[in-house]
Amino acid sequence: MAEPSVPYWTIRHLESGESVPGQTFTVFIAEGDGEDARYFDLQRMIEEPGQQEMDLELDSYCIVSEGDGVDFGGLEEATLLPGRLILRFRSASAEELQLPSTVIALGIAPGVDIGELRAGLEKVLTYGNPSKVPVISLR
């Protein structure tokens, strides 16, 4: 995946775990902990999707952005490199999430727990409909 030379923003804040105990697991990454910080909130249900979720095409992980965009299964690729997380979105997903490009490179600040980020992303992005699971390279 070709990556932008300058990060869109830098991950300085990470929360990973059950946001709603027994129901939802989330990886929340943000450029800070202020109200106006840019972020991605990647979520999955704890239980596998049922027939209703499949029928409504809500049978994969969900991504929420600071612009109140919400998209299900919108990543084509996720790559974790030293100091960077690169996300390649489907075109419709980038539009829904109000992103400037389909390829978003995020810097990773030195204090961010890479192991927690890697484990959380793998747990979220492999959830649900196999056709919506992105290519994942989380070294």
Task: Report on this structure.
- The protein has 139 residues and is an alpha+beta fold.
- Helices cover 17% and strands 40% of the residues.
- It has 3 helices and 10 strands.
- It has helices spanning 51-55, 91-96, 114-125, and strands at 9-11, 13-20, 24-30, 39-45, 62-65, 70-72, 75-81, 84-89, 103-108, 135-138.
- It has a 5-stranded mixed β-sheet with strand order 1-9-8-7-10. Strands 2-3-4-5-6 form a 5-stranded antiparallel β-sheet, covered by helices on one side.
- A hairpin with a 2-residue loop joins β7 and β8.
Mind sketching the topology for me?
Layout: E1 9-11, E2 13-20, E3 24-30, E4 39-45, H1 51-55, E5 62-65, E6 70-72, E7 75-81, E8 84-89, H2 91-96, E9 103-108, H3 114-125, E10 135-138
Parallel strand pairs: 1-9, 7-10
Antiparallel strand pairs: 2-3, 3-4, 4-5, 5-6, 7-8, 8-9
Quick recap:
With about 140 residues, this protein is of the alpha+beta class.
What Rg, in angstroms, do the CA atoms define? 14 Å
The helix/strand class is alpha+beta
- Net shape: globular
Strand order of the largest sheet: 1-9-8-7-10
Helix content: 10-25%
The number of E-state strands comes to 10
**Largest sheet geometry:** 5 strands, mixed
> Given the structure, what is the number of helices?
3
- What portion of the residues fall into strands of 2 or more residues? 35-45%
**Uncertain spans:** none
Pick out its properties.
139 residues; alpha+beta; five-stranded mixed sheet; five-stranded antiparallel sheet; 3 helices; globular
